Amino acid sequence: MKKSFEAYQLHTGDVIASIGAASGVWEIGLASMQSGLTFYIQDIDEYSCNDEEVAYAKAYWERQLGRAIDGTFYAILGTPQKTNLPKSTFDKVLIINAFHEFQYLEEMLHEVSQILKPVGKLIIEEEIALTQGQIHEGCGLPLFSETQLVNLLEANQFRLDRIVEKESYLKVFIFEKK
């Protein structure tokens, strides 16, 4: 998580959306490393993405750390085609190990472009296919190659800023709006 935190460059006062975040366990863990963050935890699964589950995840982290986490967390239920997040609001939009699961890639990328502030960053942390046709072990869906992912984003109004390699198969892609 520390390497992700460093790659994301989160700062006090940042307003962050995390799409496909379930109950926000990862996001709340990130917030434990930096005070003053606001997270909109978004998912399409109403059973994991709700106020009760987010509060449970926060309480879990606080028990583990033995201290309160200074952050604000909102659960937002979306659909496969809409985030239901407010426009021009976010300094950063995170998609952590979920991009390969999107059913409507171009629609969601348009949504992300709309919800980011003009100088906001889209950060995608994703397992990358090392061989053609490789699938994600957890969900069984196809993975993107690095080239496929970058080309898709660049064709949809984003420009690659940088790539941070966590492992040979796991990378953090940081994009800006064109």
UniProtKB/TrEMBL annotation:
Keyword annotations: Methyltransferase, Transferase
GO molecular function terms attached to this record: methyltransferase activity
Record's keyword annotation contains Zinc: no
One annotated GO biological process: methylation
Name of one Pfam family that matches: Methyltransf_11
Domain Methyltransferase type residue range list: 66-124
Protein's UniProt name: Methyltransferase domain-containing protein
Protein source organism: Flectobacillus rivi
